[in-house]
Amino acid sequence: MKSLTIILGDITAVKADAIVNAANTSLLGGGGVDGAIHRAAGPELLAECRLLNGCSTGEAKITKGYRLPADNVIHTPGPIWQGGDHNEADLLRNSYKNSLDLAEIHGCRTVAFPSISTGVYHFPLDLAAPIAVQTIQEFLNHSKVIEEVQMVCFDEITKRSYEQALNKLK
Ligand code: ADP
């Protein structure tokens, strides 16, 4: 049975075939979940990221996980919220979709996501959560590779928002 589950936790502690990093376009590290992933993975992660020449918003690139419990890290810069009329919804959908495509190409069966763009990028949580769960669920329904996706929420408010969005979908 394929599953999408919402959990409260720290994504750097999640053992999965791939965890997703809410990166910035430089792929050279930042604050929030990006900083936490780089700290936990060790300097080898930054060294590999330096070879990637950055990444456009909504696209995704993969590296190894180094000292993380996860085997791989998929880096995707989500959109910065600019009021909603700058294609933010499509770009956020692309971040989830392109991350899952890449996970599938690399044979990942288990994937964990943070709440992309809802931190310092200020995408409203009540708009981001339905986009995330719809995109993931649709992908899971058709995927022959990915079996389990976890949304790893760092706080209760975020977790509740994704749970509500998932309940509405069912
Ligand atoms: P963005 O720039 O895409 O908004 P942020 O890292 O600022 O990315 O925030 C995205 C989400 O990740 C926020 O909900 C934030 O609370 C959460 N977050 C921060 N650290 C972690 C972590 N270690 N594990 C999971 N989520 C985290």
From TrEMBL:
Pfam families, per the entry: Macro
* Native species: Sporolactobacillus laevolacticus DSM 442
Protein name (record)? Macro domain-containing protein
PROSITE patterns attached to this UniProt entry = MACRO
NCBIfam families the UniProt entry points to: PRK00431.1-6 (NF001664)
* PANTHER family, alphabetized: GANGLIOSIDE INDUCED DIFFERENTIATION ASSOCIATED PROTEIN 2-RELATED, MACRO DOMAIN-CONTAINING PROTEIN
**Molecular functions (GO terms):** deacetylase activity
Record Gene3D superfamilies: Leucine Aminopeptidase, subunit E, domain 1 (3.40.220.10)
User: Start and end of every Macro domain?
Assistant: 1-170
